[in-house]
């Protein structure tokens, strides 16, 4: 499990890092962060749910390379590598259920291919796992020691069980001394660059409010989630990769603030001037009723905790989506209506409350 000490820029600080899923929402922020820190980044992505726009500002960066590849059929990588992050996998329920067999294969074959690459290059490895490994949890909040309550035959299983199997691969490779593998169990993350049609709750509610469409709430809206801003998550992922003594098990990364979906919808309605109403729709099968991370381990091992309050992060994300929708070819009739004396976003005093 020796780690390569190579440097490409002559000053000893830059590492060669492969980010699988680097054109996605979280992956593109990770690529940004790694380049800003002076590293060289190879982004591997098949653009299934990612978007070239996310990495467009990076393509001319001298230390960035994009390989359009499916991790299930990973080709050779010529350069030495110091670190591999595996974020390749659709994360939104509607997207990962669209081709469930491919999702499962991405988790198993894709992770296996990337672990083999990391072994070959003697690179450290961070796996983006998920709070979905806890399923519909019967323990609350969720600690890493909780073994979960997952339906292995339901429509979410391709993702939940795929991610659980990927964790198994990581810990077996680690126990065998073949890869310095680390596993982050990521809880719901939000922020700029979520895809507007992704189907996830934060992007759905914001886009619906901005376009005057009804805000869709599945079930009663009393189910809970915990929302972590993407900048906080990136700090956590890089801390996990770089902590000297690798944690022996998975580490939860998420914001322990817990909100019902109804509360989240109200926050969005406070931030956007809109005529949108609430529309209730059926709750999807196996939708977890509540979710909140216990981050004691991340605090202790990584000295990490989220910093951005939800209201502040949501306001920033609303701004980003508003700018995105105005830039894109969304019909003008569907854009938020503004009077000259109205601000699109709610008054600043609403943004200062902690989450
Ligand atoms: P995303 O869908 O925006 O990004 C995933 C990226 O992986 C996309 O760019 C997609 O094109 C790429 N991809 C998918 N299958 C691939 C394959 N077979 N080969 C190559 N590339 C492939 O999702 P995200 O929110 O950025 O999530 C990134 C990772 O974090 C995922 O592994 C996800 O499971 C995990 N995660 C995310 C959240 C969250 O709330 N966003 C929560 C828990 C875990
Ligand atoms: N949800 C909702 N309306 C939407 C999208 C999602 O009420 O338009 C609910 C969904 O049923 C779940 C929660 O919001 O209870 C979070 O959904 P998301 O797809 O963002 O992530 P999950 O945590 O379920 O993977």
From TrEMBL:
Signal peptide residue numbers: none
Alphabetized UniProt keyword annotations: Decarboxylase, Lyase, NAD
SUPFAM superfamilies: NAD(P)-binding Rossmann-fold domains
Gene3D superfamilies registered for this protein in UniProt: NAD(P)-binding Rossmann-like Domain
Domain NAD-dependent epimerase/dehydratase: start-end pairs: 17-253
Region called Disordered, residue ranges: 332-355
CC cofactor: NAD(+)
Protein name: SDR family oxidoreductase
Species per Swiss-Prot/TrEMBL record: Roseibium salinum
């Amino acid at each position: 499990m020796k780690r390569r000490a190579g440097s490409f820029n002559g000053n000893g600080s830059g590492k060669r890092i492969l980010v699988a899923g680097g054109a996605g929402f979280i992956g593109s922020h990770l690529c940004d962060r790694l380049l800003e820190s002076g590293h060289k980044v190879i982004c591997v992505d098949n653009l299934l749910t990612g978007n070239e726009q996310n990495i467009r500002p990076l393509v001319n960066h001298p230390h960035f390379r994009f390989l359009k590849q499916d991790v299930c059929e990973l080709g050779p990588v010529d350069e030495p590598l110091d670190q591999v992050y595996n974020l390749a996998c659709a994360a939104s329920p509607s997207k990962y259920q669209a081709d469930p067999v491919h999702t499962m294969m991405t988790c198993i074959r894709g992770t296996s291919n990337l672990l083999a690459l990391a072994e070959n290059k003697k690179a450290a490895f961070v796996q983006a796992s998920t709070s979905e490994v806890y399923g519909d949890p019967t323990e609350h909040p969720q600690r890493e020691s909780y073994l979960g309550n997952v339906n292995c035959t339901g429509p979410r299983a391709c993702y939940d069980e795929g991610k659980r199997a990927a964790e198994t691969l990581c810990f077996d490779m680690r126990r065998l001394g073949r890869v310095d593998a680390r596993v982050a169990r990521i809880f719901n993350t939000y922020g700029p660059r979520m895809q507007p049609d992704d189907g996830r709750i934060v992007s759905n509610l914001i886009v619906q409010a901005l376009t005057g469409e009804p805000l869709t709430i599945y079930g009663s809206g009393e189910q809970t989630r915990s929302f972590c801003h993407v900048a906080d998550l990136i700090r956590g992922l890089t801390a996990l990769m770089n902590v000297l003594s690798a944690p022996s098990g998975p580490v939860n990364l998420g914001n322990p603030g817990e909100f019902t979906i109804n509360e989240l919808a109200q926050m969005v309605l406070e931030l956007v001037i809109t005529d949108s109403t609430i529309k209730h729709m059926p709750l999807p099968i196996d939708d977890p009723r509540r979710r909140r991370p216990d981050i004691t381990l991340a605090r202790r091992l990584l000295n990490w905790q989220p910093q951005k309050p939800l209201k502040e992060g949501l306001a920033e994300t609303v701004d980003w989506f508003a700018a995105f929708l105005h830039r894109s070819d969304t019909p003008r009739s569907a854009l938020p209506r503004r009077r000259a004396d109205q601000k699109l976003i709610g008054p600043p005093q609403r943004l200062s409350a902690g989450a």
